[in-house]
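Postdoc handover notes: sequence design on the structure in folder B. Input tokens:
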């Protein structure tokens, strides 16, 4: 086990060094294609699919001058380390739910505000709203990140060891969430205990009973076979998880203008094409969960409606407590109103 972990770290380090700006510059001078390393914490989901499409398109559109390499399931390191590597230019692109970037800029968390979106299609309309893009794509720019695509990951759900049929069933449960106040505060409001732990620690914690459940999206849970540890999923639809793809500004700055345009244009175009795939995949994975012995439950509509009013107030309080996120929260809310049906 110790040898395996050591080898894993060596492989990770070698991968990052191969993508470093100095190595890239040397390769370019020798006429070799530039390597574009792309990471994500998930596997066989919308984020992974986006990276595969993006890598293929950039390689084609650049005439082979850029070669994309995709590393799912945190192969390039834990999420915070991968984000840091993007900032430094050692990894060229990374995709994860927007709130994972909160450590870089707290404004990223606004997309997970409960009650912001009506449904999955509403997320797509907001993500393509020009005024939303004009503001949101600037987040993280001063910290080396270039937001280049935003699209739906899925509705939030509760995956639990015991069934959750009603909102009251969440009381006293220890639920893994992301560290964002937009997730921890609503969970606390529901009477559960939010437990922010890294993605790699979630499954063992579920298996051992250290936590009672996890707040995530169904396709990610299915792809990672969580049904073996906790077979119940409750579709709460209290909020939506939105994927955010960022490119390294350090790396982009080193590209000639034509390649910069190819990379950024391809990222936005492919992200805009992801929604039909993501929604169809969601329904497919919902069936897979049931076929694998899991159960998919729903909160009654009347309970959800009354709970949403409470959680909307919680989101407003998060914004009031952190003035730095108010402006972008207003932008997202306005985009949501413009695109509401």
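Designed sequence:
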């Amino acid at each position: 086990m110790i040898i395996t972990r050591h080898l894993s770290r060596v492989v990770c380090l070698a991968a990052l060094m191969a993508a470093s700006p100095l190595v890239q510059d040397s390769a370019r001078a020798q006429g070799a294609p530039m390597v574009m390393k792309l990471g994500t914490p998930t596997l066989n989901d919308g984020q992974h699919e986006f990276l595969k499409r993006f890598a293929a398109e950039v390689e084609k559109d650049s005439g082979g001058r850029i070669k994309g390499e995709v590393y799912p399931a945190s192969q390039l390191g834990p999420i915070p380390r991968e984000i840091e590597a993007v900032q430094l230019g050692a990894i060229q692109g990374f995709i994860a739910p927007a709130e994972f970037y909160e450590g870089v800029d707290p404004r990223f968390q606004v997309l997970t505000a409960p009650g912001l979106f009506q449904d999955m299609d509403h997320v797509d309309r907001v993500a393509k709203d020009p005024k939303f893009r004009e503001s949101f794509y600037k987040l993280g720019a001063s910290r080396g990140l270039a937001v280049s695509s935003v699209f739906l990951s899925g509705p939030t759900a509760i995956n639990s060891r015991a069934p959750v049929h009603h909102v009251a069933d969440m009381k006293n449960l220890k639920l893994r969430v992301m560290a964002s106040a937009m997730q921890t505060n609503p969970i606390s409001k529901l009477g559960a205990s939010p437990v922010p732990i890294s993605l790699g620690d979630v499954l063992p914690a579920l298996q051992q009973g250290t936590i009672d459940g996890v707040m995530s999206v169904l396709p990610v849970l299915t792809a990672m076979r969580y049904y073996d540890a906790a077979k119940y999923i409750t579709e709460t639809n209290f909020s939506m998880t939105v994927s955010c793809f960022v490119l390294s500004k350090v790396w982009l700055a080193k590209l000639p203008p034509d390649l910069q345009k190819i990379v950024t244009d391809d990222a936005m175009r492919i992200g805009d094409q992801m929604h039909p795939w993501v929604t169809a995949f969601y329904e497919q994975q919902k069936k897979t969960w049931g076929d694998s012995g899991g159960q998919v439950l729903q909160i009654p509509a009347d309970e959800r409606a009354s709970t949403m009013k409470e959680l909307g107030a919680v989101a407003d309080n998060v914004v009031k407590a952190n003035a730095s996120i108010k402006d972008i929260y207003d932008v997202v809310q306005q985009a949501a109103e413009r695109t509401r049906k």
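Context for whoever picks this up: The chain has one domain: 2-338. Don't rerun without checking with the PI first.
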